[in-house]
Design brief:
Blueprint: H1 6-30, H2 35-58, H3 72-81, H4 91-98, H5 104-133, H6 139-188, H7 193-204, H8 209-224, H9 228-239, H10 242-257, H11 262-285, H12 287-317
InterPro entries: T2SS_GspF_dom
Organism: Ciceribacter ferrooxidans
Membrane topology: Multi-pass membrane protein
C-alpha cells in the first residue's frame, strides 16, 4: 500500500487549509445571513407602529363613555310622545338584552324606530304607488296597500330583534360546552368563581364573542352586586337558554350550600355537548324533506328533459 510521503502530505494539508480559508472568507457572500436585515426590518416596523399609535392617541377625540347616549332625535321623539312607558314592564329591555343591546340608548332607539318606521313606509308606499307605478287602481285600494306597508314597518323592528336573539342564542349554544370545560378546569385548579369567569371570558373570546361578553359582564356583576345570586340570575335571563339556566342553578346551589362544583360542571358540559350533537342530528334528519321541493322544481324537469328529448327527436325524424 502506497502512503503519502511527508512532502505530499504537507502539500495536501496546505491546499486544504487554503481551500478552507477561501471558503470561510467567501461564505458570507455566497450564503448571506439575512438575520441582521430581518432584525432591522422588524425594528423599523416597530418604530412605524409606535409612531402611528402615538399619532392616533394624540388625535383629539370625544372622551370615551361606558354609557352610550341615544341620538337627540330619537330621545326627543320618545319624550314628545311619552313612549318610555311602553318599556316600564321590562319586556322590551329584556329582549334587547337578549339580543346583545345594553343600556338606555337601544331602548330609546327601538321605541323611536318602531314609531317612525310605519309612517316612513306608509309615505314611501303612497309615493311609489301614485308617482312611480301610477296604476289604474282605486285610490282606496292603493291607500290600503300603503297601510299594509306601514303595518309591516311597525312589526319590522320586533322581527329584527327576534332574529338577533335567535342568532345570538345559537352562537352561545355552540360555544357553551367549551366554556364549561374551561370553567371546570379553572375551578378545579383552585380559582375562585370570579377569577374563573374572568379567565374563561378572556380565553373564549377567540371562539365566541357572545359568550365572552356574558362571562365578563357576569364577572363585573359578581364584583359590585350585593347578592351574588342576582348576577347568576341575570346571566340566565340575558341568554334565555336552558343549558345556561342549569349551570346557574348549580352555581347558586354551590354558593348557598357549599356543594362541590366540579362534578356538576363536568356533567352539564357533557349534557350541553350531547344537546348540541342532537340538534345537529335533528337538522341533518330534516334535510331530505327540505330538499324534496327544490328537487321536484329544479332537478326533475331537467332530468325528464334529458331523458325524453332524444325519444322526441327520434319520433319527429320518423
Amino acid at each position: 500500500m502506497n502512503f503519502l510521503n511527508p512532502e505530499q502530505l504537507t502539500v495536501a494539508l496546505s491546499a486544504f487549509a487554503a481551500f478552507s480559508a477561501v471558503l470561510a472568507v467567501s461564505w458570507p457572500y455566497v450564503f448571506p445571513n439575512n438575520l441582521a436585515t430581518r432584525m432591522r426590518r422588524i425594528e423599523g416596523e416597530r418604530e412605524r407602529i409606535r409612531v402611528r399609535e402615538r399619532a392616533r392617541l394624540n388625535v383629539k377625540a370625544r372622551p370615551a363613555s361606558l354609557r352610550a347616549e341615544p341620538r337627540k332625535l330619537y330621545k326627543a321623539i320618545v319624550d314628545r310622545f311619552n313612549l318610555a312607558r311602553q318599556a316600564e314592564n321590562g319586556e322590551i329591555i329584556e329582549k334587547l338584552n337578549m339580543a346583545g343591546y345594553r343600556g338606555q340608548a337601544p331602548v330609546t332607539t327601538f321605541l323611536a324606530v318602531r314609531l317612525l318606521a310605519p309612517l316612513i313606509l306608509f309615505v314611501v308606499g303612497l309615493l311609489y304607488r301614485f308617482v312611480v307605478m301610477r296604476p289604474d287602481l282605486p285610490p282606496l285600494l292603493m291607500a290600503a296597500m300603503a297601510a299594509g306597508m306601514g303595518a309591516t314597518g311597525y312589526f319590522a323592528p320586533a322581527i329584527y330583534i327576534r332574529n338577533r336573539i335567535t342568532k345570538r342564542q345559537q352562537a352561545i349554544r355552540r360555544a357553551w360546552p367549551e366554556a364549561l370545560d374551561l370553567l371546570l378546569i379553572t375551578v378545579e385548579s383552585g380559582m375562585g368563581v370570579e377569577s374563573a369567569f374572568r379567565k374563561v371570558g378572556e380565553e373564549i373570546a377567540v371562539q365566541s364573542a357572545e359568550v365572552a361578553e356574558e362571562m365578563m359582564l357576569t364577572t363585573a356583576e359578581l364584583s359590585y352586586l350585593q347578592d351574588r345570586r342576582q348576577a347568576y340570575d341575570n346571566l340566565a335571563r340575558r341568554t334565555g337558554l336552558d343549558g345556561v339556566r342549569a349551570v346557574v342553578t348549580s352555581l347558586i346551589q354551590a354558593e348557598k350550600y357549599g356543594t362541590p362544583l366540579g362534578q356538576a360542571l363536568r356533567v352539564m358540559a357533557q349534557e350541553n355537548r350531547d344537546m348540541r350533537m342532537s340538534e345537529a342530528e335533528k337538522k341533518a334528519a330534516s334535510l331530505p324533506p327540505k330538499l324534496t321541493v327544490p328537487m321536484i322544481v329544479f332537478f326533475l324537469p331537467v332530468l325528464f328533459a334529458v331523458i325524453i328529448t332524444p325519444a322526441v327527436i327520434q319520433i319527429m325524424d320518423i
